[in-house]
Request: fold
Amino acid sequence: MKEEEIVYKIALSFTKNVTRDVVVQMQECGITPEDFFNIPTGDLSISLHLARGVKFEMMDREEAIFAARKEYELIKRHNIHPYFLLDTDYPMRLFQTPDAPVMLYQLGETDLDSQYMMNVVGTRKPTPYGINFTETLVKDMGAYFHDLVVVSGLAYGIDAAAHKAALEANVATVAVVAHGLNMIYPAQHRDLARRILSNGGAIVTEYPFGANPYRQRFLERNRIIAALSDVTVVAESDLKGGAMSTANTAFNLSRDVAALPGRINDQLSSGCNNLIRKNKASLITSAADLIEITGWKPLGMNINHSQRNLFPEMEGDAKLVYDTLLYASEPVQADRIRQLTLLPMPRLMALLGEMEFDGIILRHPGNRFSIA
Reply:
């Protein structure tokens, strides 16, 4: 790609009010990034069918070009790969989201379109319970899927545990950060960042060089963690926090969400328990659970299901529910199951919860169920 072409694309991301929708509209109207910076303001507004009062003034566009030239020199000097929204190498999962960034910057060589992409997020102050779960999950998933990519946010706690576990399991890991690639935050994780890069991982951001981290950017960063992944795993979380925003984003994107349950009086499990209670996340205790939730198929390997009784003998009401779901072509809502089985709703919901915990059925968004 020619230097000037890259500069125009970067400049689009520096131009106020240029969003994913604007860039897609440009493509539909046959306006190239170079055209965008040369068409008179009035003509550009008409061509893009902009709302009244929305304008891309020439002075603003010229300033964006100036900043983009400086950015280009920096990313070239530091071997950073820029992804433009409409380029063929832009991460596919991220492109599918309505608020995908116009530019994404990557340091490192990890394939962001890898077949198996999962993220693990959680509290910055985890307990041994959450740490042990994270380490075991990543290790086991790495054994089943050699091309697995583990995504997280390079923060303290569960994020760092997920990255370190991936390094130990010799699988790629991607750190999505809330600042430019001229720094690492927190500074204590500089060595971890170096290890990630030296082991085939990557550091990714939507922010240009010199952009500092602050609260809003961490929240914006979380949507990219969710969007790059097929499944979000919450290891431990309070009711509020970054992990919960990542989980909610993933749920709204119709991506799989899984949460580690905890005791009802444990504050650091309250977020996970709430996700499960509201049917926003599937309950997870092991890699076997995650494989069932995602439907991923590990080639040439036998999954050890001894951790859970996946095919218990069933009788009575449980068998009635199982047989009802067995021949369904898609997940069935609880109300419909009640109609088909004639079971009282309190009894049915208790039974569905037990069967989900035993790994016999899966719970889907909208209080729908299917055979695991």
Q: What stands out?
A: The chain has a mean pLDDT of 91. The chain has three domains: 3-77, 116-294, 309-371. The radius of gyration is 23 Å.
